[in-house]
Structure formats: C-alpha cells, structure tokens
Amino acid sequence: MDVVRRDAERLVVAAVGSIVAVGDPWCGFRLVDPVGGEVDEVTAFLRDLRARDASPTSLRSYGLALLRWYRFLWAVEVAWDRAGRAEARDFMLWLASARKPARGSSGHGVPGSVNRITRKPSAGVFYAARTRRHNRSVVRSFYEFHRFEGRGPLLNPMPERHGRNGERPDAHHNPLEPFSPGRRADFQPKLAKRLPPNIGDADFDALFAAMGSDRDRAILAFYISTGARAAELLGVTCDRVDIGQQLIGVHRKGSGALQWLPASPDAFVWLQLYRQGVPGRSWVGTAPLWLTLRRPYRPLNYAAMRAVLGRANASLGTNWTLHDLRHTAAHRMVADPRLSLVDVQWVLGHAHITTTQLYTEPSADDVIARMHEHHRRAGTNEQRVRVPAAGYRPEVLETLLGRVP
Fold it and tell me: What is the pTM for the complete model shown?
C-alpha cells in the first residue's frame, strides 16, 4: 500500500546541479550534482546512448530530462536506486505545475497567450505536455537500462503501458487489421491533436521582408523551398552546394545520411548575394556555409538563427518558429497536384508515409476561408417567392395550401 503523501504543488525543487559539455568523444555531456560531483549512473546511460549512435542533441535532451528527475529526487531526499512508483507519480505531478527556467523567447506577447496574427499560443511558463511525455520516457529508459545491467530497483518506477486485463499491449492483435491506439500508460500526460502550422503567403512575405541581411533571406528561401529541418540546413558545408543542378546536400536527422534536396532558383540568387557580401572568403571544401555577420567569422548555430527569427517576430508581433518553415514547405508541396505524397515523403525525409499524411488534412485557415465564402454566397442569394400559375382563384389555393400569413 502506498503511504507516501507529498504536496507536489508546494514542493520546492531547487535549481541545483547542471548538464555540462565535456570533451569526451564517448559521451559529450555530464550530469553534476549540487557539490560538483559527476553522477556516474547518468554518465553510463549517456555512454550507452552514444554507442547506439545517438546525436549530441539527443544526448543533451536526455541529460536535461534526467536533471529534472534528479533535482526532484534531491528535493524529496530519495536515492535514485530507491525511487518507486510514488516518486514517479509525484514527479509527474510536480512537473505539471513547475515553472520552466526563464530563457529568451522567439515569440511575442504574454507567455501562453494566443498570437492575434499567427493564432498560435506562445510558449507558456509551464512545461508542455510533449515535454512531460518526453521526460517520462527518458526516466523509464534510464531505469530499464540499469535494470538490465543489474543495478537500481528491480521494478521500474515509471510504469509501462498494459493491454487489456494486464496483458502485453497488442498481444492478440490481428495482423490483417490496422493498429488502434490503446489506453495510455499510467502518469502519461494527454496530448491534444495539433495540425502542423502553415505560414500564409502574405505572412511569409512579411517575415521575409523583416530579415536584415542577404544571409538570412537566403536561409529562409532554402527553408521554404527544401523543407529541411533547422539544424540540417545550418549544418551544410560549402562542398554540399551544387548551383548548376540547384541542389543542396543535408545530413538527415537520425540516420545521418547525406541527401541532396532541390531548392528554388531564388534561394541560390540570395545565396550568391550573401557570398558576395563576405569578401576574401573561400567557398570550397568542408568549411561551413553559413557564418556570423561580424568578425571573427564563426559558424552560424541554431541559437543564433533562432535569435534572428526572434528579432523579426518582435518587429512583426508574431511568434513563428524555424520549424514552422518546414511545416509550411510541406503544406505547399502537398497542395501541388503534380507532386505525389511519396515525392513529398522523400523530400521531407519521413520514415513513414503516415507522418507525411498529416499535411493532407485541411488547415484551419483554408476551412475558415471556404466557410466565409459559403456565408457570402448564402447572403447574396435572394429569396424567390414562387408565383402560382395564372387561372387559380385565391380561395382554391387557400383550400389546397392553407392560409399563408
């Protein structure tokens, strides 16, 4: 029987410990405790992820999720290998009410409010459901790793998803029938269905005009025409630009495979203007394509490009993100009847076509526009009163049809 009772909402969790980057090629990140000591069990877990070819970005994301878990354990004074279901439950309750650490925002307006132009909610002050789901998954994977190695608690604190009557999920599924989603695992936050956002043509033109340099215009032109992810495009080197064939090579997220993507002619025009603005630079070899605008020139990273978009959002009163450009490119490709869904899947680098099919659903803006047109047509149609044929007397019509008020 669970006798542990905590007030998760009133629990004070100090922002102690940190995730630090190190020069170790086998891991890259360390979790340090409040006194600066390395948390060995987290290092072992991250090294195992690295051996499974996890990217540095994924390692940092997993490390930050475990940092939240350890901060909670330090606050409730429970050792990591003594944590149970009660700690997992209270951690998820605390995570739902905890405020995120303050950082610079790419949005505009009050946190959590809906932007009047984009109709997207700005980033809130609390952890989103997706973040909490990710944190739950990381903690469960962490304990599964150590349970397999013979360390930690015998029972994973984070419960797994069960099928009916406690069976394994989909244990008796008919392979001839499609899978249907089952019940959520315990402590798993609900996730509302959300369609990918789409930047309208007028809004994109305004965003493009708000860019302050040819470099930023070139980057936006490549984003909107290739549908590449933000980090994929920013990681392009000079030897992966083929102006003659109008192709640009990106290393795909996850697999790391090199894929050449076709881009619009305008993107290469802006690229040439950007290159001409950096005199004396050699644009060959494996040197990074995108550089900072001020000397000494350094590779342009995600944080710097996010700041560029944040300044544009501040001037326009919007809250667009870099990933919204990828969504918009996908919407534009799917809307072209001469492109098949398989073509779009290949360009976007989706492993499953079901992911690409999300862009076939009508967007809210398209439905609203069609409904406005429907109301306009209905309002202009005049009500026509049928006139009875000649020769019928009024008393006969009254007998047949009844008295008309």
Answer: 0.80
